[in-house]
């Protein structure tokens, strides 16, 4: 199960993994010999593979994290790093791992001593400060035991690891042979040795040192990683193959430690010492001896002595003069940084025991710089208050200037907007005035048409009355008039013969004219009867035509209702399909529609023309009216067909905009058609009334009376 899981994680077969861990192929000339490994060798190979994958994965993760945190060109190189070291380790059995960890702690303790003891005291001496040296324990001899070449622990370990037949016991004997002269080394019985570290003496067992230092990662294992399907094992194997020289674990660890120390030397370190309160790892227990031993081993007591006797706060003369120089009055001001620094210290009455003046720096004891910082903060606070008031005044003045400019700009913009609004309002008022004038003109024309219609109807009634009187006069006999005239002449006495002859001649002429007119009137009566027959036929035709129109309008209404149902409900108010509420309207009985034909046509006045001429003209006008009605019927049929087709097309596409356009066209045509229908109706009505004797005609819907 373990082999299967490991093989699936790295992306290879379980068989290949078992073969790489249990055998080792060796090339002898042109032949390759597979050598079976012992159990311990197979375990070491397995551990080496696991450590190699872990170390490579750790390095890869660190590189990826650092690459993701880069800011490109803005990268400054300034970092804040935290180095966490567990500390010295001393167990019952200490092996190669404790050897490396304790070596790293020795090197870091040397860095700690260098910064807190060596460098600080050297700085005091170089800058001419009166200083008493503080003794501390130096671990340089122990570091030489680890790092010295060619006779050092790491060098001898690498040398022994290169011998194929070397063992851990031969390595221990070699250490005793070469390092017994060192005071920090002590050889023990068996394969063991002890080292006096900075924190105390630690006993090491050499069992497994050589194998762990060699880190036996065979070529078979690297080839297995190269053939894996996963990307990371392939990357780790390629990095391993690209290394020019294979290093041992100890040498590699030493190089990494030197690189770390180099980075620490280039930084400003701050140290935090962790103290174990007891060895039993229990809460609430404090072992004084153990804590005191740790404080001595870590050099904390020496650090405390140096801090109490030293000068933790230090500044160069230039920095001190630049930071506190403005606190001096004008009388004490000068350009020399050293003189400025001394003048500042004298002005604030700093005691001579609390500071020292070096060649390049000023050194202060703990807490002495606080008074200067308080004075500096107070002066800067007052300066900031003055600057704040001045900047506020300048900002307010700028704001008021900007506000005046904005108000001026707004006045120009608002005046321009007001002018535009005034122009638009004037145009609107002019348009409204024109529309009002047009409405008034239409109302005046309508009133005039009504009055003219009324005058025409009154004139028409008078003409009918005159016609009736003329007909009554024509029915009287002429002999009666002659006898009456004779009786009249006899009653008035004797008349002259010439006058009487003239009167008789006129009477005869009048009687001849009357006889002729009677004949003409008889012919006209026959024509009138014919016209009445035609009129009744025309009236019947118009009634049938009206029924046909109603059916066509109903059909159009159904088509438009279908359009209305197919369209969305929110557009039903704008549909033109509401023709059912207004079919072809019968406006023919109203006064306003009669006024459309109010102008009296020429040739209808019976006072100046004879009745036969008038009747002929009426017949022609009736024929013209019938032709006009036929054209209107044809137009209605054609329009009805067009609107019906367009309504069906709109139902298919379901377009509200097209429906609105159809409604507008229908209303426009309906209005025009209604006006022309009114005019034709009024014309025909007028012509019919001119021949009927006081008979109140309706267009249809009432039974007409015959002329007796």
UniProtKB/TrEMBL annotation:
Pfam families: IQ, Myosin_head. It comes from the Eukaryota. GO terms for cellular component: cytoplasm; membrane; myosin complex. Residues 500-534 form a coiled coil. Residues 1-377 form the Myosin motor domain. Keywords: Actin-binding, ATP-binding, Calmodulin-binding, Coiled coil, Motor protein, Myosin, Nucleotide-binding, Repeat. One of its GO terms (biological process) is actin filament-based movement. GO terms for molecular function: actin filament binding; ATP binding; calmodulin binding; microfilament motor activity. Transmembrane segments: none annotated. Belongs to the TRAFAC class myosin-kinesin ATPase superfamily. Myosin family. This is Myosin motor domain-containing protein. It comes from Davidia involucrata.
């Amino acid at each position: 199960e373990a082999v299967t899981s490991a093989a699936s994680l790295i992306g290879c077969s379980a068989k290949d993994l078992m073969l790489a861990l249990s055998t080792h192929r060796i090339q002898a000339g042109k032949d390759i010999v597979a050598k079976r490994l012992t159990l311990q060798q197979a375990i070491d190979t397995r551990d080496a593979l696991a450590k190699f994958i872990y170390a490579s994965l750790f390095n890869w993760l660190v590189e990826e994290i650092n690459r993701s945190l880069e800011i490109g060109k803005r990268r400054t190189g300034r970092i804040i790093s935290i180095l966490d070291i567990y500390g010295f380790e001393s167990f019952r059995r200490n092996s190669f791992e404790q050897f490396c960890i304790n070596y790293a702690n020795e090197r870091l303790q040397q860095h700690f001593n260098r910064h807190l003891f060596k460098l600080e005291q050297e700085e005091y001496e170089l800058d001419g400060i009166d200083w008493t040296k503080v003794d501390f324990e130096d671990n340089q001899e122990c570091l030489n035991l680890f790092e010295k070449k060619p006779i050092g622990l790491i060098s001898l370990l690498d040398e022994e690891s290169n011998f194929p037949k070397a063992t851990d016991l031969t390595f221990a004997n070699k250490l005793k042979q070469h390092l017994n002269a060192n005071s920090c080394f002590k050889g023990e019985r068996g394969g063991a040795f002890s080292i006096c570290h900075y924190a105390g003496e630690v006993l090491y067992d050499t069992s497994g040192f050589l194998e762990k230092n060699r880190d036996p990662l065979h070529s078979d294992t690297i080839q297995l990683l190269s053939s894996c399907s996963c990307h990371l094992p392939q990357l780790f194997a390629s990095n391993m193959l690209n290394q020019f020289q294979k290093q041992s674990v100890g040498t590699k660890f030493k190089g990494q430690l030197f690189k770390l120390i180099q980075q620490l030397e280039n930084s400003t370190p701050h140290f935090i010492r962790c103290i174990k309160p007891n060895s039993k790892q229990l809460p609430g227990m404090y072992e004084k001896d153990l804590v005191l031993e740790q404080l001595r081993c870590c050099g904390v007591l020496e650090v405390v002595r140096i801090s109490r006797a030293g000068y933790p706060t230090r500044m160069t003369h230039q920095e001190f003069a630049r930071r506190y120089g403005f606190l001096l009055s004008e009388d004490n001001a000068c350009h020399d940084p050293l003189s400025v620094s001394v003048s500042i210290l004298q002005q604030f009455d700093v005691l001579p025991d609390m500071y020292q003046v070096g060649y390049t720096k000023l050194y202060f004891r703990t807490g002495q710089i606080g008074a200067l910082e308080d004075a500096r903060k107070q002066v800067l606070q007052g300066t900031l208050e003055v600057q704040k008031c001045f900047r506020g005044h300048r900002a307010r003045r700028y704001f008021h200037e900007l506000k005046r400019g904005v108000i001026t700009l707004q006045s120009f913009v608002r005046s321009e907007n007001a002018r535009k609004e005034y122009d638009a309002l004037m145009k609107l008022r002019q348009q409204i005035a024109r529309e009002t004038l047009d409405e008034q003109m239409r109302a005046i024309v309508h009133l005039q048409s009504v009055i003219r219609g009324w005058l025409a109807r009154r004139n028409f009634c008078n003409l009918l009355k005159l016609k009736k009187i003329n007909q009554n006069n024509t029915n009287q006999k002429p002999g009666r008039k002659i006898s009456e005239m004779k009786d009249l002449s006899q009653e008035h006495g004797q008349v002259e013969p010439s006058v009487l002859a003239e009167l008789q001649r006129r009477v005869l002429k009048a009687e001849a004219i009357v006889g002729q007119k009677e004949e003409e009137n008889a012919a006209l009566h026959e024509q009138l009867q014919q016209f009445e027959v035609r009129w009744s036929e025309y009236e019947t035709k118009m009634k049938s035509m009206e029924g046909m129109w109603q059916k066509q309008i109903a059909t159009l209404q159904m088509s438009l209702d279908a359009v209305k149902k197919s369209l969305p409900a929110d557009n039903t108010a704008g549909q033109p399909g509401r023709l059912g509420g207004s079919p072809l309207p019968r406006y023919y009985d109203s006064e306003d529609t009669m006024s459309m034909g109010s102008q009296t046509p020429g040739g209808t006045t019976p006072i100046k023309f004879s009745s036969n001429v008038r009747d002929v003209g009426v017949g022609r006008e009736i024929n013209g009216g019938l032709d006009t009605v036929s054209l209107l019927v044809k137009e209605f049929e054609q329009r009805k067909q067009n609107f019906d087709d367009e309504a069906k097309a709109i139902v298919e596409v379901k377009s509200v905009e097209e429906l609105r356009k159809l409604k507008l066209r229908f209303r426009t045509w309906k209005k025009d058609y209604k006006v022309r229908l009114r005019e034709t109706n009024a014309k025909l009505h007028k012509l019919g009334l001119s021949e009927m004797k006081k008979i109140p005609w309706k267009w249809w819907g009432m039974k007409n009376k015959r002329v007796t």
